[in-house]
Amino acid sequence: MFKKVLVANRGEIAIRIFGTLRDLGIRSVAVYSEADRESPHVIAADEACEIGPPPAAESYLQFGKIIEAARKTKCDAIHPGYGFLSENPLFVEAVQTAGLVFIGPSADAMRQMGDKGEARQLAEHAGVPITPGASAMQNPKEIGKAARKLGLPVLLKAAAGGGGKGMRLIREAREISEAIGAAQREAQASFSDSRLIVEKFIQPARHIEVQIIADQQGNTIALGERECSLQRRHQKIIEESPSTAVSKSLRDELQRAASKLAKAVGYTSAGTIEFLLGQDDSFYFMEMNTRLQVEHPVTEAVTGVDLVRLQLEVAAGKKLPLAQKDVQLRGHAIEARLYAEDPNREFLPMTGEVLALQWPNLPGFRVDSGIMAYQKIHAHYDPMLAKLITWGPDREQARQRLIHALRETAILGLTTNRDFLIELLKSTEFSSGETYTGTLATWMSERDLSHELESEMLVAAAVAADRSFAKQAGNSISGEQDPYSPWRSLGGWRHLG
Amino acid sequence: MEAPRLTTKTFHLQHGTSVYELHLKRLEADRVQLRGTKISNPEGSKALDEVEAHVQQRGNEIVLKTANGPHRAIAVRTARGVWVSLGERTAFFEFARKDVDAVSTQPVKTEIHAPMTGKIVDVRVKPNQKVGLGDILVIMEAMKMEFKLEAPMEALIESVGCEKGQLVDLGQLLVQLKTLDNKKA
Q: Does CATH place domain B8-104 in 3.30.700?
């Protein structure tokens, strides 16, 4: 097993990976940009190295600086997390050339799956159904033509990557050129590649994905599905496992298709195969994410495995400790993503300082957080602050627990989507389990925003506004008594950066 | 025990498009009464229900007991206003100008400010150009996502304060608009 691992990431995912490394007795190294000197992931590792200015392109995307940091600290492997360099085959090769292990799939598998056009062809050859569509194109006129030929509505996607970047839905002909322009600019900015693919937009459909993990000995197992139909800006906000729409036999079918595709590219490590599921149980391959997913904790909650641990083990050449028949799904898990954004202003990302922070504590609850009190949230990085995950013996109990958990969560100092998540979890749409990719948009348009503030809220506001009140109560500095402050849990961890 | 001092303080707190004029009266050291008015545009003003509460404040925690039972709020005061989280709601109340009348007759928004720190991807308008409601004025990019800033009304572009490729800060003035039917000119 590895002795020391560098995590080429920041925020909650870096902290989550450091946790597993600690469990395994492996030493950890963090990297950070100038903007992240005070960030929690820096103190969650045994050592830390500064790698450059705030923009990701000058720090978290710099192969050279990251590999240099790994060498300097004598690491034997690099975990990329998600986003940043996690799906860049050139990075994988650079890591291997430097004599280090990349904790993830091979550059080849990544390349084949990373190009959406190529991945579609691969799936077709492997006998996995795909959505009707057109392969990667550069010329905006050709893209427009393909969209018209396919028949609206269509979905534009960046050929080179995922995460909702460069994705646009076109419903009407007059939107075509504007949408192509915007999608190509986003694709260029995110992936330095403006090619797009066009797909027929299937509706109503659910977004269902299958988690797989494969070792170097040729064993591939599937760890059930996750449903991620509730999305805004084509980015997921609530994910759950299992899906209310997937029966035992459909799960077997989906898992077989996912494993088949993974095997077709000789895939190793953790990966996710995304499908669109129609109302008639027909499903279509969308794409494969060749990395650990943001929403992996719901799978961990229902299967009991630590996916990062399995990633580390298979990267070190070990055989998977469990076979497909050992995979049992138990209960139900739901994850809500807490973002610094304003749901009432088209989910605009918000920046600011975390002035007060409180996490709940209840049975079946997990928080993967990347923030701490007094931290500044910059515009340089993804606005996701934390993920809240609850488990329950059934979906309804998991849902109630998540509402409870969010009610007892407080983040003050910047606008977040916390209130919105509570409202969404309480909606009849979510509680019924009838969730499709279009559900959120419809629900948003019909949502009543005219709630009056409770009088208790106004009392609290007036009391908080009254300086003399706080003084008399003998308090002025907030946060000091916060029992959930990450500083409290620091214990014996050292910051050597 | 200190003798209670019956002091009343008035706060003007803006939440969204409403301003709350709140009179906080200290009945006892740990008991308050709140009266007030909510002023919104264009609905006008409305008296709020009077409420009495037992209050305890510890750090940023405020425990209230009202006729509806106990409530626990988390609150922070900043130079600009107060943040409060209570149950399922989180709100920021900005300290508003005392002149409540001025708020109720708020002029139509004629300035477009950057809603976030980011980069100007495109500027679609020029000074003296006429625009319609919803026309795209400027496209911004932040966190690798694009945002369109649209005209909030039919208007004439008075000035443009940004250019393509420029990095702008949150709140920076990007475009100034003038109403077409310019009565106040």
A: yes
| A424 interaction partners in chain B (CB closer than 8 Å) | none
Question: Residue A465: its chain B contacts at CB < 8 A?
Answer: 11, 13, 22, 77, 81-82, 93, 95
On whether any CB of chain A is under 8 Å from the CB of B142, the answer is yes
Contacts A470 to B, Cβ<8 Å: 57, 77
Mean pLDDT on B60-79: 95
- The rounded distance, in Å, linking the Cα atoms of B11 and A461 is 9
Among A190, A358, A458, select the one facing B74 at the smallest CB separation.
A358
**3-class DSSP assignment, residue A189:** helix
- Name residue A200's beta-bridge partners: A154
The answer to whether the Cβ–Cβ distance between A467 and B77 falls below 8 Å is yes
What is the mean pLDDT, run by run of 10 residues, along chain A of 497 residues?
98 98 98 96 97 95 97 98 96 98 97 88 93 88 93 90 81 93 90 90 94 98 98 91 98 97 96 95 94 98 98 98 97 98 90 95 96 91 96 98 97 97 97 95 88 93 84 42 43 38
Which CATH class for the B111-179 domain? mainly beta
Provide the CATH number for the domain around residue A25.
3.40.50.20
* Long-range Cβ contact pairs of B59-67 (< 8 A, separation 24 or more): B59/A475, B59/A477, B59/A478, B59/A479, B59/A480, B59/A481, B59/A482, B60/A356, B60/A412, B60/A478, B60/A479, B60/A482, B62/A460, B62/A463, B62/A464, B64/A456, B64/A459, B64/A460, B66/A455, B66/A456, B66/A459
Q: What number of helices (H) and strands (E) belong to chain A?
A: 17, 23
Residue B108 pLDDT greater than 60, yes or no: no
CATH number at residue A278: 3.30.470.20
| Interface check B34 vs A, CB under 8 A | yes
Q: Give B24-67 pLDDT, tens digit per residue.
A: 999 988 999 999 999 887 778 889 999 999 999 988 999 999 99
Check A464 against B71: CB less than 8 A apart: no
Same domain for A183 and A220?
Answer: no
Domain with CATH 3.30.700 in chain B: 8-104
Same domain, A155 and A58: no
* Assembly ipTM: 0.84
CB A422 to CB B88 under 8 A?
A: yes
Note down the domain range covering A52: 4-103
DSSP letter, residue A100: -
Burial code (b: 16+ CB inside 10 Å, e: under 16) for A321-330 equals ebeeeebebe
Tokens representing residue A286 in the block: 């969308």
Chain A within 8 Å of B85 (Cβ-Cβ)?
yes
Does residue A459 form part of some domain? no
Instruction: Determine contact, residues A336/A297, Cβ cutoff 8 Å.
Output: no
Query: Binning pLDDT at 50, 70 and 90, where does residue B3 land?
Result: very low
Residue in the structure block whose two tokens are 């027909």: A282
Q: For residue B152, is the peptide bond before it cis, meaning its omega torsion is within 30 degrees of 0?
A: no
Final residue belonging to a domain, choices A404, A421, A446: A446
Alpha-helical runs (H) found in chain B: 100-104
